[in-house]
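[job 0412] stage=fold_complex status=start
inputs:
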Amino acid sequence: MKVFSTIGGYLLMMKSMFTKPENFKMYWKELMHQSVEIGMGSLGIVAVISIFMGAVSAVQTAYQLTSPMLPKDTISQIVRDTVILEFAPTLVCIVLAGVVGSKIAGELGNMRVSEQIDALEIMGINTKSYLIAPKILGALITIPLLVILAMALGIYGGRLAGTLGGILSGATYDRGLLMNFVPKNVWFALAKAYTFAFIISSVSSYYGYNVKGGALEIGRASTTAVITSCILILFADYILAFLIL
Amino acid sequence: MIEIKNVSKSFGDKEILKNISAVMKTGMTNLIIGTSGSGKTVLQKCMVGLFEVDSGDIVFDGKDLTTMTEEERKELRQQIGMLFQGSALFDSMTVEQNVKFPLDMFTKWPNSKKMERVNDVLERVNLKGTNKKYPSEISGGMKKRVGIARAIVLKPKYLFCDEPNSGLDPQTSMVIDKLIHEITKENEMTTVINTHDMNSVMEIGENILYLYHGKKEWEGTNKDIIFNKNEKLNEFIFASAFLKDAKDMRMLEEKGIIDNDRNMDQIMREGGANLVISDDDRKE
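[job 0412] stage=fold_complex status=done
writing structure:
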């Protein structure tokens, strides 16, 4: 029964967000602030993960492709498609669920517990609209960009690992990247990125906004937000793959 | 003026407020007192609209909060300032940004005019020069004063304070009480303060509402609270030893046994220390 009340509360929160801003300039400022926090704040970790994920992908693909019948440029094709279809959108967003999701839930939870949200409500501000909507919009703007960056860095990471490890030459790798490229894969990856960005930001905002209690409950809300986001990302990943591919 | 008419509020099966009626008067510091769990904070949150009442009305100068539309409530809220128990300052903003926030959100003033108002208000609460400090860098008393500054920056008609002296030393508490009282008088505001600090009650309690287990038990002023006949209220206020002495002193003064126009230290030096208060003297 608790699941249904949680879903209901989540949907009501989403509905309440859509009101006319009290001051558009202030909302815009908050949106920019959240976009920088989410985007720039995650840049480092996304870059590191992406390079290594591409590198590992190249090494392990080379390990598995033992048949001399298969040309070496197959490695880069596999790395490209794996990074674009799965690693960049899904793996990176799972990590962002932890980084961004816990930050959002913790921030809103702390604001709730210290009555800052009540202070905003007393001033006559729709807090769901002012605090949550910029986080969701900021995530929708920046997370797909981070996924695109992850794709590029992942593919580059594979090239780096392949050439430094003597697996294949740079020219062979680059040739393989251009072979059998399906542009639809990129659109599919972006569709996943937007879906996961929405899940991460909205779920974390819900748990943070509705914290009741003290520091312990803030921690619990953060953890629950991350776990729920991860599960929903994996579920949405399967659904999108089933529907689109 | 705020009129509370037959307000009741429950959470689940637990009845927190039971048919409370009272008037919070304009230009006065109105205090709501009671033990922890008596319903003071719930009543105050119902008054500002953070909780919806189960029954009854809350009327702000003729306008009933319980029947207002969302737009009307927003308009009313812009006339309300509130100081929270923990100050509720925005951690990521400086003192200046905290106080300026309502002006940024609700006015179209040029920045110079906003800054002038911010500086005036900070000076009024004796925090000149703290503009660039963050809440984590200032003391508890200073946080409360920033909270007051933010609450009054839009010149509200109504000021609510939830245990403004919580966590403060007695000297700082007096400063906060005095500041709230002065601001109330200067701006003709209706100020409602939740407290269980008896010093505040005696210093600034011009209109006092005593709650006991969610019911209104007594209403009066700080002048008549000492000699009230309500058993539950007496149990509450005389838990503080200094008030027992205050009651004795007030009684002796009324009977002409001591003269409080003279300095009390002088009275004590002249033999006040040997002043014995007989049972007859205690009889009213």
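[job 0412] summary: The mean pLDDT of chain A is 94.
[job 0412] exit 0
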